[in-house]
Design a protein that fits this description.
It is a single chain. The chain is 74% helix and 0% strand. With 390 residues, the chain is mostly helical. It has one domain. It is globular and about 65 Å long. The N and C termini lie far apart (61 Å).
Length: 390
Amino acid sequence: MRDRSGISGDQTSEAAMAGSTTPKETSAIRQETARELSKVFGLDAAGLNWPRAILFLDAALVPLMVFWAIGHEQYLLSALFGLLLAALDDPGGSYGHRAARVAVFAAAGAGLTAWAFGIGGAAWGWLVLSGAAVTLAAGLAVAFGTRRFVTALLLNIWFIVALALSFQFHQHARPTSHVWAQVLAWSGGAALWLAVTFAGWLIRGRGDRPQPVAELPGDTARQPLTGPMAAFALIRAAAVAAACALAFGLDLSYGYWIPIATVIAMKPSLEQTTLIAAQRLTGALLGAAAASLLILLPAAVTGTELFAVTRGLEVVALVLLAHAVAIRFWNYALYCAAVAAGVLTLASLPHRGDYAVEGYRVLWTACGVAIGLGLMLLASRLAGHDDEKP
């Protein structure tokens, strides 16, 4: 029997069965989706650390008040990164050992800061070459121990951020940014952490203290530089070079998020890279949505009200970053959301009329993660082919 369209009932039934899924298949899909979401939003109760967040917030209020007083907020991010990364690199132990280690870290960071802000106005090829060189050196640092690799990775991330900020400052006439002032801001942030730890050392009776961020590896034992280690360093450098070429060569609006996302998303294994990519993309979406709502607040105010709301949003951004410090090892997706919301809010305040920044940030973050993940997939495929060779 055929209907008016000329298609038999049996044919219709077969097409419907072919284009549908059984309840069992639907249940399997839902279970797989739930498993993936549980990985992205999985919580580690032991990773929640509010005292650490309060300590960061107390310290971060110092540069905020200083730059409020002198009216040069363009140096605030350098100071905050100097403070935060010095705290992350603090190895614990005796105060003399801690001070020496943080001082060396601060000096290395100051040199990279001067390098990054010094070439921000150069041809984009120099930015690509510099980003790739620093990333390659950071990747090869794994031969000096896991702890030193983490230190190099922190400096690598800051160099890419500083390079992006420098490029943006050279694209706009205001606000003016001086290289020496950026170096001073970074060094001041690191010195502030030394002052905080010195006060804590005196208050606690001058005894040895544990590593502030105990979750970070502390192994400093050297290991031979194997082929896979060198290959991974080269892959990271190539990924950052490609990301920098897109961001700076094409002069994309807020394109500097591409290399930042790339260098952060790539991890030593493909499985880790895939999970980190999913968490970072999710966090970027959540953080961009939160920042969009926040920067809409001063849209219809002027005068003293605008001044008050702007200062209030800067405090909110610091609170968001403090939450990020607390939940870094609790859940990486939520950590990325807090960081994105805080940094986007600070970056958007000088350009309150440009509400497309959040969309650009999410788009370029996705591109950066795709570059890193794509190269890792390619490396994994090539490694698989090598394993199959007799």
